[in-house]
What we know:
- This protein is of the alpha+beta class.
- It folds into two domains: about 5-85, Winged helix-like DNA-binding domain superfamily/Winged helix DNA-binding domain (Arc Repressor Mutant, subunit A); about 95-130, no CATH class.
- Helices cover about 55% and strands about 15% of the residues.
- It contains six helices and five strands, in the order E-E-H-H-E-H-H-E-E-H-H.
- The protein has helices at about 15-25, 30-35, 40-50, 55-65, 90, 95-120, and strands at about 5, 5-10, 40, 70-75, 80-85.
- The chain has a three-stranded antiparallel sheet with strand order 3-5-4.
- It is globular.
Amino acid sequence: MDTISNSPILGSTCPYRQVVDLLSNKWSILVMHLLKGGPRRFVFLQRHITGLSQKMLTQTLRELERNGLVKRTVYAEVPPRVEYELTPLGQTMQEPIAAILSWSRQNLTALIDAQERYDGQTGAGTPAAN
């Protein structure tokens, strides 16, 4: 059995699984990708990620902050200003994120073709099946 620190590799306490859970959030990679350009305000992130609700952006930023990937800075101004930026640890994720985004661009057509083949064979994804 593959183990990490005497934990089953797929067990809930596996460190790899904890990282995969964090990064497999629908929005984490997109938020971190936008933050690579430097500090950003909440509204900037929300406007640039289509379909991301205020609630989900808040949850995503809190989780990234909790895990040390994002820093939240509140400025004592009127009106208050809050900015988010990648921490040094978050910066280390930029190369893997770039690789994922590159892979996505290179393989998007193949993924869509596979989905259409599957849906055509199973009837999944059609309005009648939903």
